[in-house]
């Protein structure tokens, strides 16, 4: 890293070329080649932030970038430099406490990162040196080393696969820790590689490190004596990424091409942008208000001081003569010094300890989510995860929910349902001849078959057009497969095998073909074997695989049969296949595809093409040339793919079902009842996604759907831009202009008199809206589009690319009012929208259970350092989970996470913030009023010990306990009444209205404190011996009333009492009394002057003082008492907790009285 930074500093990056040359085994090439020792970074992984040398300066710099810490540092320096009325300890000690606690927390977290880095860097690996295996630490691997990896180990760096223990020269890996895909992927050795790696003389020329996990371009030059160098193309299929795990392969050898911080994994796991909650923004706004109050107080007191001193005899009284130095001081300098002194005197109005309390509340409060038993899923043996605790309160402020469909609303558990061959539909569940049953046919035609030849061709396509691998099952895993979903049904003994695939769709199709009598037996040495109806084994030579990509939305294989025919089989989305086949064939299939999609099935179309000798020769040459290219390889391959995948014949289509998640409909209904707008963002086709929305009750039969798709844009026979303009204005008139104003708190109803609108948009139409032609009004289109979406009950965005998902979220997030957004997804394609939203939620795949026991040879440390947004723990992988703020096992858990935990977290922290400003204003206002009675002489009202410990000891623990345990409304009531979520929407408790109420209350109580005690002091003799109280007694009485009042105020606000609340509230009051006795009852040798010596004793010896203290406390709390008595209870707030019910989904509660219940009863914790 240091070398890279120095190169960047001195212009070294300008000499950086686009490719690198690697010497395999670090052996020089033949004499004809010049050997230049390469210089690459080592294999050390560094995820830590600090070192032992830079921790102190770097951490202090970062902490003092926070405005509150910097402010108190300035105050402390002023106290040290300027003669101020209070000791520097009063502000220095709280600041030191805050800085120390934060530094310890951050230092501990970085120590964990150092520890994880060390485990990875010191992990032993095996490297071939001079042909002999040698063990060394992972961090000592160099680019060019040949590394040995055995099964279930993680690759320590990015490797090019040279040799595999499998006969077919392949290996299987899982990349769940990288891209979220939990299925097995097949990688291939370099073609025609020598078995003896000791004598291998080769160089690799490849691109420089870049973060794209799916792209790699390179070529390998293999040198043999007396032969020209052989050139082999290298692609992503040859690259084994650091962090991936070797599976179902005993051993592989690979050459290191990228190491350390240049691996793709390290380049991908850089720090994410910091998310800030709305509460933090409110705190900053309130701080500015209180800072203005502080400056105003200092200005007023400074002005009054010099006005008072301008009177005769007041500037220099006989008892306080000025020194020569004071007489020589410039007036304006002295005025500025006095202003700073008053700033120091009143600086405690800014609550620095609030930041520590807020961080502790967030950190400790996050454990209630991880401990919640209701979030525990026995299938994956995991509960909810909290990757960041900074956004707990945002869970109670969500206005928009953006959800993925596949794997989030649905289970991503694919099951083959039916197929259509040449216009005739066949179900997967029948007992007729050959397992086929005709259920319907083309228009008005029934009980007809497509013909045996077409049926066999279709089933061969299903058995050949895929990347599935066969794994012979062991005794404990008969009939199983390494895919996302469980095995469908037990196979016959001869077919007891498992399947390894990168997509659950492919396994479902292969199993569907098995039900129809065609069995895929596996791939051996580029030969694919299938067993047909007659139990004859057919062999096909696999020539090329045209891989699937989201742009083409299809994949193809080119095979050669025993008879010498060259066939291309292709499958993909209907929108991708239909334009490449004959139009008359499309009409026979289109009806079935649309009907299957309407019923919620995922559909794929299947086509084939016979290639002539010349066509295949041209395609083969084009593919080989494109795969050897170092520049623009993807574009060249795409051109060849598009050229060969034309003029195909459409055979049929398949329908695969992806079932809904458990309680998906109830969850979506509850979120909408809570006032949230739910948008579904998916890459699936419109018909399938629309049926899912109906099943989830996002759309209802009475909902009028507004459709902005390619179909509607092309239906008018005009340019797309013209139709887009007309449709947007028409939809805007319906959904916005003519719609009645929405009323807050009104639930949706099946028989609602007001029209409900649902909006459907696809990726192509969205591209026109977001990036229109230059002659159109871009901002106008976006504004209309956003207004239409915001006035619809639900929005469905289909055929979305990952980037478009993020664009949608960003558009809503930056709209008027800055609504709080939440994105939830389970796959790598959802990461962009998860990171973009205010809160991101992810989903853990159950298929990963088998991965956890594998040993980690490197890479795990980076995973822990890369977490940032909320995810549903799903079957597509952990990428969404790692990049999320929160992760939940199932979609149904989102309901409790938001409606219960989010609601309570927001109420707690909002009360904490308001309470801190309130109690500090109560604290400082008497000090300000006291200046009017001491000639603005900067005389402090309170002792320095009280100034220091007020926020640290006397009033800190009760509000922390309140902010962790308070439940103003029972969790069961919150779950049963989703509309309660609306009561706290739009930051309701931290608006200026509640802030003004708390400020007025603090001013009222501060006036009561000061003038109530002043009235007491109108009696000159308050003790039995006739002695009078002094100014320190005055301040002590005010402080006593203050501490008891603000603490009892919190007790009045507490609705959910636990033994912890009792302990900290009454314990804090007792600690204040005990401390005051000890502080004033002992002569402390380290104090030069002891102002409170026996002051507290004398105060309590006066009956009048006792009476006034009690009377002022009651009088101060009287408004809260009257407000609580006179306020009418409303709605579910007054409902008692419901008894436990036996039906599933209801939450059991304790039978103990409310005051005796602890937090464990309410959070359903798992210890």
From TrEMBL:
Positions of Mg(2+) binding: 404, 406, 826, 830
Protein name, as recorded: Phospholipid-transporting ATPase
Residues the record lists as binding ATP: 404-406, 506, 548, 571, 602, 682-684, 799, 805, 829-830
One GO process term, biological-process aspect: phospholipid translocation
Subcellular location(s) per record: Cell membrane; Early endosome; Endoplasmic reticulum membrane; Membrane
Residue ranges, annotated region (Disordered): 1132-1151
Names of the cofactor(s): Mg(2+)
Membrane topology: Multi-pass membrane protein
MF-aspect GO terms: ATP binding; ATP hydrolysis activity; ATPase-coupled intramembrane lipid transporter activity; magnesium ion binding
InterPro entries the UniProt entry points to: ATPase_P-typ_cyto_dom_N, ATPase_P-typ_P_site, ATPase_P-typ_TM_dom_sf, ATPase_P-typ_transduc_dom_A_sf, ATPase_P-type_domA, HAD-like_sf, HAD_sf, P-type_ATPase_IV
Family listed: Belongs to the cation transport ATPase (P-type) (TC 3.A.3) family. Type IV subfamily.
Biased composition (Polar residues): 1133-1147
Residue intervals of the P-type ATPase A domain: 123-264
Record EC number: 7.6.2.1
Keyword set, alphabetical order: ATP-binding, Cell membrane, Endoplasmic reticulum, Endosome, Lipid transport, Magnesium, Membrane, Metal-binding, Nucleotide-binding, Phosphoprotein, Translocase, Transmembrane, Transmembrane helix, Transport
PANTHER family on file: PHOSPHOLIPID-TRANSPORTING ATPASE IG, PROBABLE PHOSPHOLIPID-TRANSPORTING ATPASE
Enzyme class: translocase
Lineage, highest ranks first: Eukaryota, Metazoa, Chordata, Craniata, Vertebrata
